[in-house]
Amino acid sequence: MNTELFEKATRLNETLFEQFGKAAEMQMNAFRRYADVTMEQAKKVSEVRDLDGLKSLTGDQAETLKSLSEQFTADWKAWQDYFNESREQIQKVFEKTAEETTKASPKAAK
């Protein structure tokens, strides 16, 4: 019984560890992307020297905002996919546990 419990806990921990690793990677990738955009925009702002440069910057920022909006949408979808995958993986662990318990019960009854 203790061995079974230990194996179940190990499977759950492995699944959680894998899913948390994916979440951390997604967060770091998003952070890098948004930090790069921020640095790029800060550089462009610092290079404005006249009215034409300011007009160019505002046009460029409109494109950047559109791009950011699309990226936010893509990131949100990626997080939804991650949560669905995590839920499925954890459910599989518990389903295996239930199956093993069911299989073990008839043996114990004999």
Blueprint of the fold:
Layout: H1 2-46, H2 51-109
Helix pairs in contact: 1-2
Task: Describe the model.
It is a single chain. By secondary structure, this protein is an all-alpha fold. Helices cover 95% and strands 0% of the residues. The protein is built from two helices and no strands. Helix 1 packs antiparallel against helix 2. The longest helix has 59 residues, at 51-109. It is rod-shaped and about 80 Å long. The protein starts with a helix and ends with a helix. The model has no long low-confidence stretch (mean pLDDT 88).
Strand content: under 5%
Largest sheet: none
Average pLDDT level: 88
SSE order, as H and E?
Answer: HH
How far is the first residue's CA from the last residue's CA? 16 Å
Number of alpha- plus pi-helical segments: 2
Shape estimate: rod-shaped
- Sheet/helix structural class: mainly alpha
Low-confidence region ranges: none
Global Rg: 25 Å
Assign a percent range to the helix content: over 70%
Strand segment tally: 0
Task: Describe this protein with a few key phrases.
2 helices, 110 residues, 95% helix, mainly alpha, rod-shaped, 0% strand
Short description:
The protein has 110 residues and is an all-alpha fold. The protein contains two helices and no strands.
